[in-house]
Amino acid sequence: MTIPDAYEERYAAKLWSLLPEHHRAADSETIDAAGPLQELLTRIGWSVADVRRSIDRLWEDQSIETADSWVIPYLADLLATRLVPAMDARGQRLDVFNTISYRRAKGTVQLLERLANDVTGYDVRVIEFFRALGRTRHGLDPAIGRPADSADPVGARRLQQLERLTGPRTGTPAGGWADLRDTLGATLVGTAFDEYHHHADVRIGRGDFGWYSIPKAGFFLWRTVSLGVDRATPVPVAGCAGHYSFDPTGRLIPLFLAARRGANDYGESWLPVPLWQLPTPLTEPLWEAILDSADPFHADAADTWPLSLSVRPAAGGAPLDVGQVRVWPEVGRFQVLPGGPADVEAGYHHGLFSRIGAGPYDRRRPGIRRAVDPLPRSRIEGGSAIALPGAVAALSGQGTVIVGDGRTLSATADVPAIRDVAIRAEDGERAVIRAAGGAEWAFTGDGGRLRLEGLLVSGTDIVLRGDFTEVVISCCTLDPGGSGALHTPPVVWDSAVDGRELVASTLWIEGTIDSLVIDRSITGPIRTRTTGLVDRLTATDSVIQGLPTELAGDLDGLRDADSIVSALRFGRDPLSAWLAGQLDAATSAAVAAHDENTPVSSATAALVTTALQGIVDGPLIWDAARFHERTLSAATLDAVASPPADAAALRALNRLLLAEAFPSGLADAALALDAGLTQLDRCTVLGRAYVHRLECSESILDDIAIVRDAQDGCVRFSAWSTGSRLPRRYESVELAPGAPVMVSRRYGEWGYAQLSDGADSAILSGNTSTTPTVLSGSRERSEMGVFCRDLASVKDRSLLIKAQEYLPVGVAPVLIHLPEADPVGELTRGRPWPPM
Known about the structure:
It comes from Microbacterium deminutum. By secondary structure, the protein is of the alpha/beta class.
């Protein structure tokens, strides 16, 4: 808080009093009004006040604790400290403050871990790789010996472990042969806790290569955030009594350990961090070691239950004893053993690269004032089927509903006549809404504002009707669904453990919205239908995903039935007129009876779907004159130039032609908006996009994007897919559609939408002034896409700069990002799954 010192008024009055009286009198005809001369002296007085304050602070500016922010670089120069861009003003102040203590401990593992944590904010473990080299021991090495031969075998073994003469898990001697009998020790190969020894690797240290060599130090960085859920409603597994999934949507997700290492642990009390204090996936061998009371790790790791995961009675009370529950952590399932309660709640941790979507975290943003809740406010608890409908019924067009915990709400209620309504989770909580499949949650605007915040919505679409001035969806997850692409036909969607299909929750716009804001959210498709209109869509720090909903060549239904049926009825362009001419008499009659801009009956929609499927199954529908008013992608135009002879491929091409010709009505897409401006800032779009105008910055368009008005807008510092039709591009790169640049595209996995370390190898071309890159191609040289604001690449470069100051002479740093294994492939490959 700034204390008023009245310096501006004081010096303005002082300067005015020093002016001769006749000049003051001539300055203004009115006594109370300031003339131009007095106004000039008042402005000069402001500058004099700034100079006086600077003089007053000369003494404070000599100390880093009290200096102004602009002084910090000058103090850093005095100490020859290299400030790095990964640090904000507070971080740079601490960097200068700690410079002397850093230099006193220069070259030690303790200092390197502390430095890496200060620069990046990640959990860190530093390994001197020369200690992991296999070698022949010589006479100057300390003898290892056998603990059993000593008077105190337990103490002797502990001393060997502390001196790093033997591995704490496997007992492998330093530089010697690997002991493979310990399961957990064997699974830790290639990690920061690897107890085995390796041949020298003289390659430059990058990624998984070039680690083991004398002049290399490995910085293992845990970048993934471990998010803790304290109360969740587990989903029962169909056909397995007493079995549940931790995840409230019924997914099988890898569990994480809670991060337990604090910033103070890098100081004078530093010790090498044990595995169970890090935000890492909880594997089956690690969980078994934690449960083993005879294990040497047990005393320190015993509180993993209930700190990292727990199961408790739904009625309340203490967590169940760990012996009453069997857990499969790699797939996020558990079993309540016979004798336990029939109704339970779960607490667990899951991983994500950043705090986006619905989650138990602080949703406030620095420097941005939080939206004020409209009155009246009501608070409900999760776990009830009637709580949300009852609270919504009491809104009367204005008010706030706050969900107090993370237990699942299983029913929704439409919200009519919205003037100012907010539905949000309690601060630091996640509200879960899992309704029956096929339902719709409708919000009808009356020219007002709607805000949804902190909600995880699964199993239901959200429909916006009426007129809205503004709709804000902040820190929400509209379940993007689960793709069955790895399954065999006719499976399209993955299934939850209770048998429900993990269908995407679509945001349908049927009304008129002046401003639709998507902030730090994960959503399914965003689409318009039945005269829906968004004047401006602004998405920031978000993932928008649209998965395929049908197999190639199939037309399972109409997305926007009104637009298709109206196009067939009026035939306003050559393609629509031609398609209308292919309809049979019954379908033509149903189309003629439809009123434009109204919902289409299910009977008419079924007739039109069947008729269009017949056209798709026939010969190639392409004709240049027929499609000349339609915007097609470059890839599709190339395909029709040499049509396939295979019948299945021809069906798929026909289906693609109709989808691109009528994107709102027939295409699977992440974005399908017929009009308005779409503005994407630091977003990742997984799926096709069909928009009218586009402003795209620091984003990733993972599939083909077609912009109807390509003369307006810009795509800058972004990645786009081959075949897209876009406005002018600046400092952007080209990728193949669906290129393998991400750790995972499946929602629920810790690597969801995260760029892999080898993403730059997938770049096809770029119009950049420097080397084309996705990992550091944003405006601030961070990675493109949804995690741009986390500055991962900037932190890596900053750490390398600082490490040069404090590493021993001749030692090179190797940055290793964790977790680095594929969350499904590596964590579950070869492991026994729980019974289904």
